[in-house]
Amino acid sequence: MDELGTNTYHSQNMANSSYAPLFETKKAKGSLLYKLFATSIFVGIIFIWVYRATNVAENGRLVWIGMFGAELWFGLYWVLSQAVHWNLVYRHTFKDRLSQRYENELPGVDIFVCTADPVIEPPVMVINTVLSVMAYEYPPEKLSVYLSDDAGSDLTFYALLEASDFAKHWIPYCKKFKVEPRSPEAYLRLESVEMEASQAQQFSSIKKLYEGMENRIDLAKKLGKISKNTLFEHRGFSKWDSFSSRGDHDAILQILIDGRDAEAKDVEGCRLPTLVYLAREKRPQHFHNFKAGAMNALIRVSSEISNGPIILNVDCDMYSNNSESIRDALCFFLDEEKGHAVAFVQFPQNFHNLTKNELYGGSLKVITMVEFHGLDGYGGPLYIGSGCFHRRDTLCGRKWTKGSMFGWKESISPRTGENVVELEERVKEVANCTFEKNTQWGKEMGLKYGSPVEDVITGLSIQCRGWKSIYFNPEREGFLGFATTTLDQTLVQHKRWSEGDLQILLSQYSPICYGFGRIKFGLLMGYCFYCLWAPNCFATLYYSIIPSLYLLRGISLFPQVSSMWLLPFAYVIIAEHVYGLAEYLWSGGTVLGWWNEQRIWLYKRTTSYLFACLDTFFKLIGFSDSGFVISTKVSDEDVWQRYEQEKMEFGVTSTMFIILSSLAMLNIFCLIGMVMRENFVLETMALQILWCGVLVLINLPLYNAAFFRKDKGRIPSSVMLKSSLLALSLCTCFAFL
Ligand SMILES: O=c1ccn([C@@H]2O[C@H](COP(=O)(O)OP(=O)(O)O[C@H]3O[C@H](CO)[C@@H](O)[C@H](O)[C@H]3O)[C@@H](O)[C@H]2O)c(=O)[nH]1
Ligand SMILES: [Mn+2]
């Protein structure tokens, strides 16, 4: 049946009973119970539809149809969501078997770190990520780390230069004392590190070295330039001579540590991993395709230098938190029975700066702990960028064919005779703007261009070529990054994601048309579940405006309390939310965290998703182009404080905030207006009042930020003025016209 499924393995050539797999797959427990529960919800949904279809109100037919439309959407979307809940699987690896069988022939691994802006992605953070991946528990001569710098910043280069020195102390220290995590900053931040006297001594000297390095980088940043001495000392800086701006410069390629060189050793005399800095060529007249462009340049450059058959990509904030991750990933690729079909292994994206009740839903808990396990049950998760291991050949467009094996042992290492300077000069060419002209790069080769979520569309096309993917969610998290710390950043990030996903649905790689027959139907539904994030805005907006407004007219849009029709509404709403809460708690969250998640769910749907739909529409008719707003990975002291206190951060004036506060004001006006009506009947309006009340309750932090808070994170009064006026006039018109 399924190459990667849970079925007991069976094959002629391996029918040897001593064969032990490198990984195993387990199905979630209680799935029958879940299926029964889901079926009961579905019955409830059908009853709601029947109610809408058979009880059309006398006055307000149109509004009624609208309600029906919204509920039809919610119901169908719920059906899609079953794809990510129905069939959860969990993976487990056997790393000891991997070492037993393959320790001496492990494949080369090339690690790509991407950065694009030294201000919102500070170089110190970037090199911490680089150092963490250089210190993987893996033979250093098989490890190569490439930093792509889309800003072409000499400050970042300088930081990397410092890191290449510090690595000589850091890597042996990590390996000797088996420390975790291997990002120096994260490690030194740990509160209690228990250690013996011998380690304690080295610990303090490492700490001093690190702090010295950090200070030098900070100083260079403050001065805005690198000291003359350093500039003279390293030939690399001369490559900035022809640099005019981040969008206009030659390709800069610098091999800081040449792993081929047997002399490149750490302080204990062990070999070091290769370390390369790359700023691909940028010219104003050539579009650079954001991260996808950077990744493709890296694929080409690395193929000339180390050509590792396995590629790992991390964002510059996502440091390695688990030094065994490469070996975990290899258990899937090298498994004799099932490995040949695996194109990529995606780890979850976890974060180190979350607060207890996650005001912005930063951890994406349910996606990480449930939904992706569900996708894995149908052929594998989406490729979501950071924390993903790929097979190089697949990423470059190779199709999967039955019976083919993963020939990592035959992979050709590039020429070794050349000296570093010659090598750099030659390889630089493949990072030029014009290199991709009239090639398949960005289409059939490498990451795909033209989508704000280059990762998802690339992963989909790989799966459509017959490959499987694996979701691996180990107990000790593999990668930790920086979650957004303000509401604005969160909404902007989700706009990019939902917009990208929606555009995939409309692209030539649409999971519906292109994916049909190529991937499993469950996976196809799973893709649609994400691709249809954005259109959720319409039903949600309708549901959070119309019922409240109709309170003002005293018109009921839901069954009255004594009616039997109330039952399906009550059941579906209560059961789904209780289940959602349980799922959230089970994923490690708190009750308040769940409540916050409901709020951010509402906010995303009414702003990010709406803007995603609008922008997609404008793009379709040729009016706009989607960009890539890079997420900020630092925050000011006072913003950070409010983040830690879980106070919602508004602060800036944005159209998204105008929408949010208009909706919040509209609902409170409607509630007040309704109470002031003399002749309202609780019996007929109960559910509607309750719903409006919930909308007001969930917006409490917003009212607080508008009317009571005095700090900089409050809602600017101009925003409040506009939205209050807007909401008030809407309510007045509606009540009296
Ligand atoms: O022109 C660009 C823009 C971005 N990046 C890098 O891309 C990464 C992701 O950017 P970020 O702003 O952090 O976006 P996120 O939304 O946090 O990233 C998620 O979503 C992206 C797709 O939207 C994926 O590319 C990422 O891997 C995934 O972690 C960062 O390392 C950037 O430095 C570039 O290299 N060049
Ligand atoms: Mn990020």
UniProtKB/TrEMBL annotation:
<feature type="binding site">
    <location>
        <position position="121"/>
    </location>
    <ligand>
        <name>UDP-alpha-D-glucose</name>
    </ligand>
</feature>
<feature type="active site">
    <location>
        <position position="150"/>
    </location>
</feature>
<feature type="transmembrane region" description="Helical">
    <location>
        <begin position="62"/>
        <end position="80"/>
    </location>
</feature>
<keyword id="KW-0328">Glycosyltransferase</keyword>
<feature type="binding site">
    <location>
        <position position="315"/>
    </location>
    <ligand>
        <name>Mn(2+)</name>
    </ligand>
</feature>
<dbReference type="InterPro" id="IPR005150">
    <property type="entry name" value="Cellulose_synth"/>
</dbReference>
<dbReference type="Pfam" id="PF03552">
    <property type="entry name" value="Cellulose_synt"/>
</dbReference>
<feature type="transmembrane region" description="Helical">
    <location>
        <begin position="650"/>
        <end position="673"/>
    </location>
</feature>
<feature type="transmembrane region" description="Helical">
    <location>
        <begin position="32"/>
        <end position="50"/>
    </location>
</feature>
<dbReference type="InterPro" id="IPR029044">
    <property type="entry name" value="Nucleotide-diphossugar_trans"/>
</dbReference>
<keyword id="KW-1133">Transmembrane helix</keyword>
<comment type="similarity">
    <text>Belongs to the glycosyltransferase 2 family. Plant cellulose synthase-like E subfamily.</text>
</comment>
<keyword id="KW-0812">Transmembrane</keyword>
<keyword id="KW-0808">Transferase</keyword>
<dbReference type="GO" id="GO:0030244">
    <property type="term" value="P:cellulose biosynthetic process"/>
</dbReference>
<dbReference type="GO" id="GO:0071555">
    <property type="term" value="P:cell wall organization"/>
</dbReference>
<keyword id="KW-0961">Cell wall biogenesis/degradation</keyword>
<feature type="transmembrane region" description="Helical">
    <location>
        <begin position="524"/>
        <end position="545"/>
    </location>
</feature>
<dbReference type="GO" id="GO:0000139">
    <property type="term" value="C:Golgi membrane"/>
</dbReference>
<feature type="transmembrane region" description="Helical">
    <location>
        <begin position="685"/>
        <end position="703"/>
    </location>
</feature>
<feature type="active site">
    <location>
        <position position="455"/>
    </location>
</feature>
<feature type="binding site">
    <location>
        <position position="150"/>
    </location>
    <ligand>
        <name>UDP-alpha-D-glucose</name>
    </ligand>
</feature>
<comment type="function">
    <text>Thought to be a Golgi-localized beta-glycan synthase that polymerize the backbones of noncellulosic polysaccharides (hemicelluloses) of plant cell wall.</text>
</comment>
<dbReference type="GO" id="GO:0016760">
    <property type="term" value="F:cellulose synthase (UDP-forming) activity"/>
</dbReference>
<keyword id="KW-0472">Membrane</keyword>
<feature type="binding site">
    <location>
        <position position="291"/>
    </location>
    <ligand>
        <name>Mn(2+)</name>
    </ligand>
</feature>
<protein>
    <submittedName>
        <fullName>Cellulose synthase (UDP-forming)</fullName>
        <ecNumber>2.4.1.12</ecNumber>
    </submittedName>
</protein>
<keyword id="KW-0333">Golgi apparatus</keyword>
